[in-house]
Write a structure and sequence with these properties.
It is a single chain. The chain is α/β, with parallel strands linked by helices. It folds into two domains: 2-225, P-loop containing nucleotide triphosphate hydrolases (Rossmann fold, 3-Layer(aba) Sandwich), CATH 3.40.50; 232-352, 2-Layer Sandwich (Alpha-Beta Plaits), CATH 3.30.70. The chain contains eleven helices and 15 strands. The strands form two sheets. Strands 1, 2, 3, 4, 5, 6, 7 and 8 form an eight-stranded parallel beta sheet that branches. β7 (158-161), α7 and β8 form a beta-alpha-beta unit. α6 crosses α9 (221-229) and α10 (249-266) packs antiparallel against α11 (322-340). The longest helix has 19 residues, at 322-340. The two termini are 28 Å apart. 49% of the residues are buried. This is GTP-binding protein. It holds the Pfam family cobW. InterPro entries: CobW/HypB/UreG_nucleotide-bd, P-loop_NTPase, Zinc-reg_GTPase_activator. It comes from Streptomyces enissocaesilis. Residues 346-368 are annotated as: Disordered.
Length: 368
C-alpha cells in the first residue's frame, strides 16, 4: 500500500524545503520516498535542487494537480513502478486551493484500494500570514490573494507553520494559538524545515487520521481565478558566458534577485517567490531564492567551481502584469551581467498569467 502525502500552501511558504526535509527524515526511518513538484509553467528551479538530494523525483508541469489530475496519477504510478517506493510526497502549485475536493477525495475514491492519502497539509510562512492578518486588522477589504490564502487554511487537515526560526518564540506561540482557535478542525504544528527543528511534529501529524475531510469549501471560482491572475509567472532560461576567465555564479544570481527585490518594493508588487539556479558544465549549480519585496535573497546552494559559462533558469511569480515582469527581469539580468562580468542571452523568455482553473474532478464530502 502506497502512502500519498499532499502539500499545499501559498507561494514562498517553503513547501519544497519541507518536502525534501521530511522525505529525508522518512528515509532515515526506513521508508522509500519519492517526491513530485508541480507548477503552472515548465523548467522548475526547485526540481534541480530536490534531485541533488533525493533519488526519486517527478514533475507535473503546465497546470496544478487539480487540472492535471491524470498526470499526477501517472507520475505516482511511474515512481512506484520504477523505484519501488512506498511513500510519495507531492507539493501543489502555491496558488492552488480546493484540493480536498479536486485531489484528495478523487484519489481516495478511485485509488483507495492501492493508496492511503495522508491528511492534507497547508504549509504557512509566518511572516506572510502576519502580513495578511495586519491588513485585515486595519479594516482593509480582503484582497483576492488573501482570499486564496484563507481558503488554503480553511481546507487543511494540518496547518504546518514553517520558518519558526524567523520569528521570536513569543510571536511563534501566539501565532500557533491564534491558528488553533481560528481553525479548530485542523492540527496546527510549528517547525523549521531549514534547521529541522520540531520537524518530527509534522511527521507525527501525518500519521494521525484526517480531521477536515468533510469540509465543503465554499469557494468562488471566479475570485480564485482572479487571485491567480494577479500574478505574472515567468520561467526563463539564459545562457551565460564569462567575459574573462570565469565568473561567480552566486554573485550573478544574487545581484539579479536584489535588483528584482528593489524594483518590486518601489512598485508595491507582491513577490510570491523568485528563484534562480545557475547550472555549470561540470554538473555543479548555485540556487538562490526570494520571497518578499525589499528582502535579501536566500542562498540555498552555492557553486563550488568558477565556470566560464553556464545555464540559468529564473522562476518568478510576482503580482504585476507580465510585460512589467519581463521588463523588470530584463533590467535585473543586465545588472547581474555587469556585476559578475557575464554576457547573457535569453533562450526562452516567457511571462504569462494562469488560465481559469478547471479541475478534472470536484467531489463533495461523503453523504453531502
Amino acid at each position: 500500500m502506497i502512502t500519498f502525502i499532499p502539500l499545499t500552501g501559498f507561494l514562498g511558504a517553503g513547501k519544497t524545503t519541507t518536502m525534501t526535509a521530511t522525505a529525508l527524515a522518512l528515509q532515515e526511518q526506513g521508508r522509500k520516498v519519492a517526491v513530485i513538484t508541480n507548477d503552472q509553467g515548465v523548467e522548475l528551479v526547485d526540481t534541480k535542487l530536490v534531485r541533488s538530494k533525493l533519488d526519486s523525483v517527478a514533475e507535473v508541469t503546465g497546470g496544478c494537480f487539480c487540472c492535471k489530475f491524470e498526470d499526477l496519477v501517472e507520475a505516482i504510478v511511474a515512481l512506484v513502478s520504477s523505484d519501488d517506493v512506498d511513500t510519495v510526497i507531492a507539493e501543489a502549485v502555491g496558488s492552488c486551493t480546493d484540493l480536498q475536493a479536486t485531489v484528495v477525495r478523487p484519489l481516495r475514491q478511485y485509488y483507495g484500494q492501492d493508496m492511503v492519502v495522508a491528511p492534507l497539509t497547508t504549509v504557512v510562512d509566518p511572516l506572510r500570514h502576519l502580513a495578511f492578518a495586519r491588513a485585515a486588522e486595519r479594516g482593509e477589504p480582503e484582497s483576492d490573494l488573501s482570499y486564496l490564502f484563507r481558503q488554503q487554511l480553511t481546507e487543511a487537515d494540518v496547518i504546518a507553520v514553517n520558518k519558526l526560526d524567523t520569528i521570536s518564540a513569543e510571536r511563534a506561540e501566539d501565532l500557533l494559538d491564534s491558528l488553533r482557535k481560528a481553525h479548530p478542525n485542523a492540527r496546527v504544528v510549528g517547525y523549521s524545515a531549514g534547521t529541522g527543528e520540531h520537524l518530527g511534529s509534522l511527521l507525527q501529524a501525518w500519521r494521525a487520521p484526517a480531521t477536515n475531510g468533510d469540509v465543503r469549501l465554499d469557494i468562488d471560482y471566479d475570485r480564485y481565478a482572479a487571485a491567480e491572475a494577479q500574478l505574472a509567472w515567468m520561467n526563463q532560461e539564459l545562457d551565460l558566458t564569462a567575459a574573462g576567465d570565469s565568473f561567480d555564479a552566486t554573485t550573478w544570481a544574487r545581484t539579479l534577485l536584489e535588483d528584482l527585490s528593489a524594483w518590486a518594493l518601489r512598485n508595491d508588487a507582491v513577490i510570491g517567490h523568485a528563484k534562480i539556479t545557475v547550472e555549470l558544465a561540470d554538473g555543479d549549480f548555485a540556487k538562490l531564492s526570494l520571497t518578499e519585496s525589499g528582502a535579501e535573497p536566500t542562498l540555498d546552494r552555492a557553486a563550488a567551481s568558477a565556470p566560464t559559462g553556464g545555464r540559468a533558469v529564473v522562476n518568478a511569480r510576482v503580482a504585476c502584469e507580465p510585460d512589467a515582469l519581463d521588463s523588470a527581469v530584463t533590467q535585473a539580468v543586465a545588472a547581474a551581467d555587469r556585476a559578475a562580468g557575464v554576457t547573457s542571452s535569453a533562450t526562452t523568455p516567457v511571462s504569462f498569467k494562469p488560465s481559469y482553473p478547471r479541475p478534472v474532478h470536484r467531489l463533495a464530502p461523503a453523504g453531502a
